[in-house]
Amino acid sequence: MNPLIRWANTTIVIQDAQRKDELPLMRMYYLEEISEVESQVEREVRMTADSFSSHEREAWERLRKAIKGIAWHDYQARFAER
Question: Is 38 left (phi over 0), alpha (psi -120 to 50) or beta?
C-alpha cells in the first residue's frame, strides 16, 4: 500500500529573536494517507540555515526584506496617526 501524499502547509520564518542563528527556517507539512487502513499521518520537513546554499540564503534575505516591508506598510496604514 503506497500512501497518498497531500501537501498541507509551508511556513517560512522571517524573524525570530530566539532562533536568529537558525534562520532561514522553513517548515513544510504534508499528510500521508492510506485509505485502505484509514490511516492519516502528518509529517514535517524542517530546513534551517545549514540546509540552504549561499545563493538560497541570499534569495531568502531578499524575500525576508520584502515581506517585512509589506508588513510595515500594512502596520502604518492601519495604525498611523490620521
Answer: left
